[in-house]
Amino acid sequence: MNARKLPWREDCTPYRVWVSEVMLQQTQAVVVIPYFHRWMQKFPVIESLALASKEEVLKMWEGLGYYSRALRLYEGAQWLVRNRNGNLPETRKSLEEIPGIGPYTAGAILSFAFKKKAAAIDGNVLRVLTRFYAIEDCISKLLTHRRVGELLDVHLERRSPFVTMEALIELGALHCKKEPECHLCPIKKGCKAFALGKVSEFPKRKKRDKIVKLTRIALIYQYKDLFLVHRVEGARVMSGLYEFYSSEKIDSLPKRAYPLDKVVHSYTKYRVTISPYLCPLQHKMNLSGYKWLDQESLLKLPFSAGHRKILLSLLDFLSSSS
Ligand code: SF4
């Protein structure tokens, strides 16, 4: 089998599979690899993750996006320590009881770590099988996932389930991609979409939401070598992450406000352009929920993706002007 050499496949423990699968949601393997290594160094076992602070967890995830994934892993690890001595169980039912573990991740842990017959239907598998069987239903429907699951079960019965599961994921990642390489595909003889000459029409998807463009202004207040930041609270997407002061619009800029490079940041259907200004102050001011920190402390904090770019641009600016 021409499987890719990936770090989570080398020492295939249930915890490593779990972490890798959560990181791989919405993110390509090549991007995940360095994050996976760093994570495993910092949190080598479930207990070390459970005992970490929320800030440490978010810092390790910084830049990977969709931070709720990191928090779900964290919550799951704490639950496992409280309820199962820090061990991942070997049945689908018990795995799905763990906060943050859904059918796909449970299937992946059972298949890859415990080598059991279990369907793990990710985007790759969905793409391959909806093309192979020319399934007309929309890929985002639960019904389609169920149908693919049933078809997959038949394949898993026939051969070594773990090998078949991994082979399908690899086929999706390496050949049956968005732009498929059917000439290299080992199963093209049986592929209905290929036989119909309609590969580009599968999988069927609903129309994407229109991109919503937003603009924000960020004011980086500076007093001597300190900068004003706050931690986003509540149930917002950025909850637990740090940001500088920012607003959709402000009436007027402070007297001393030096523009830094604009930052563009996208998440879900939003594309946000942030215009940051460095605003040195003569006197220290207090703003509820905000704190003053030096550069070294800022670097240790987890920032939201947009404000992390602002922080890096600020550090560049400060080092070039010192
Ligand atoms: S023949 Fe093409 S479309 Fe069909 S499974 Fe292979 S790569 Fe995918």
Descriptive overview:
The protein is of the alpha+beta class and 322 residues long. It has three domains: 118 residues, Endonuclease III, domain 1 (Orthogonal Bundle), CATH 1.10.340.30; 89 residues, Helix-hairpin-Helix base-excision DNA repair enzymes (C-terminal) (Endonuclease Iii, domain 2), CATH 1.10.1670.10; 110 residues, Alpha-Beta Complex (Nucleoside Triphosphate Pyrophosphohydrolase), CATH 3.90.79.10. The protein is built from 14 helices and eight strands. Strands 1, 2, 3, 4, 5, 6, 7 and 8 form an eight-stranded mixed β-sheet that branches. Helix 2 packs across helix 3, helix 2 packs across helix 8 and helix 9 packs across helix 11. The protein starts with 6 loop residues before the first helix and ends with a helix. The relative contact order is 0.10. The model has no long low-confidence stretch (mean pLDDT 92). The site of iron/sulfur cluster (SF4) has 14 residues, from helix 9 and helix 12.
Question: What would the keywords be for this entry?
Answer:
322 residues, alpha+beta, Endonuclease III, domain 1, Endonuclease Iii, domain 2, Nucleoside Triphosphate Pyrophosphohydrolase, 8-stranded mixed sheet, binds iron/sulfur cluster
Helix-strand layout with pairing:
Blueprint: H1 7-10, H2 14-24, H3 29-42, H4 46-51, H5 54-61, H6 68-84, H7 92-95, H8 103-113, H9 123-132, H10 142-158, H11 161-174, H12 192-196, E1 212-223, E2 226-231, E3 242-243, E4 245-247, E5 258-259, E6 263-267, E7 270-280, E8 290-293, H13 295-300, H14 305-321
Parallel strand pairs: 1-7
Antiparallel strand pairs: 1-2, 1-4, 2-3, 2-8, 5-7, 6-7
Helix pairs in contact: 2-3, 2-8, 9-11, 10-11
The chain binds iron/sulfur cluster.
Residues 128, 131-132, 175-176, 180, 182, 185, 187-188, 191, 193-194, 199 line the site of iron/sulfur cluster (SF4).
